[in-house]
Amino acid sequence: xxxxxxxxxxxxxxxxxxxxxxxxxxxxxxxxxxxxxxxxxxxxxxxxxxxxxxxxxxxxxxxxxxxxxxxxxxxxxxxxxxxxxxxxxxxxxxxxxxxxxxxxxxxxxxxxxxxxxxxxxxxxxxxxxxxxxxxxxxxxxxxxxxxxxxxxxxxxxxxxxxxxxxxxxxxxxxxxxxxxxxxxxxxxxxxxxxxxxxxxxxxxxxxxxxxxxxxxxxxxxxxxxxxxxxxxxxxxxxxxxxxxxxxxxxxxxxx
Length: 255
Known about the structure:
alpha+beta; Creatine Amidinohydrolase; four-stranded antiparallel beta sheet; 4 helices; 14 strands; 29% helix; 25% strand; globular
């Protein structure tokens, strides 16, 4: 069911958005060459405790997950493109690191993701990160009252096409509110004008994620981490936004 939020409810979501953004900034600052992924999860976990927030991941067990997630952030490295389960891995020079994080404050959830290179960057890695960031900007710009979900999807897909990347449609954006994942689904490619008509009060996460040379994925043995089928590296960018009469408002903006 698609739920619309009042202006007061959108205001009530802002603390969660600011908190999610602050955690991503802190984790990115800590994620240098030689840092263990479990250290990053511990930083986020401590920030959750200090803020009196609640993790959306630690007990999360949807049908596509092999078990309850058990950690508070997703850490996807190189060819791991989504849902990376933090484990005993030390970040190496040149790794693409994607961090996805969602948390709840006072019962309201926000969700966001960033990708970056640790250490020496391959230009092709920077290119795919830039593509996801540009696609996110384009998708947000299309999230206006009177447009449709397909307009957001098409805007994202157009950026992917311009960069020469295929798009996987198994996972995409989604509604956000009292829970992390809700309706509507927001694919990362589509046709303009198709699907649910955007209305004031809709809150969604828009999350482009691309892979260099494939649009196919498989699930790792940990039951969670999604990897590109051919070992291609990938990147992921995401914001939670509210659609208002004055245009889209990014609730997870990082400052």
